[in-house]
Amino acid sequence: MNIEHARTFLAVADTGSFVAAAERLHVTQSTVSARISALEKTLGAQLFVRNRSGAVLTNSGGRFLKHAGQLVRTMERARQDIGLPKKFRSRVVIGGRMGLWDGVMVDWFASLSTEYPSVSFRAEIGFEPDLMQGLVEGRIDIGVMYTPQRRPNLVMRPLLDERLVMVTSEADRSLRPEAYVHVDWGAEFDNQFNASFPEFPGPAVTVNIGWLGLQLLARNGGCGYFPRRLVEAQLSDRSLFVVPGTPEFELPAWVVVREDRNASLVDPMVESLTRAVA
Q: Contact 157/273 with Cβ under 8 angstroms?
């Protein structure tokens, strides 16, 4: 069985859409359709019912779900183990949002090689859909993100609560809606922002990385919402200012691991991360 067919099946099952699966896997929708058709031919059963709302697993598809996950995880583990130098007994892959690596995870990650000299580590930066897909497939052992979606066989643990504050480059701390730089902190933030600022026009600039938003404010001026911990230095040197009277928003960060993880190895790492940010 082609492992990419199983990987594509998992993406469609997770997103509920051939289109969304194609975007996640960075392939065309026709490629996704061809892979699923080939898989259905191999198995001799229909796996999805396609309708206007997306793609829904059939009974056969639901039964194949656990087998597809096992296939992909087994292949990934085999690939990792075969390429693992002899001095290491295991490998751990850690993925996280760039904004969470910055100031939260880097020092912790740097300490792991000393604490676990017989373990090989891989660090990845990603957004929630890719991180979740990596966890579902077993390619990622520990995922750290803002807006995980609950999935079977995955365990979510709270890590920290970010406080998003509106900052501006204007020394008079005025709020200029036309200069607003929108950072995509997820659907929950978007809903809170739209409810609090119904009069704001659509942003001229939208970015999906907080670091990039800060770079734009430094170069062009403007305002935007950022985690307070990421802008403490700029607030101290008065290159940015908190806009008075604007609401603060809470943005929880989570650690996500698999239920069938190597708990004796992964759990102490997660606990040390939790202690590091406490």
A: no
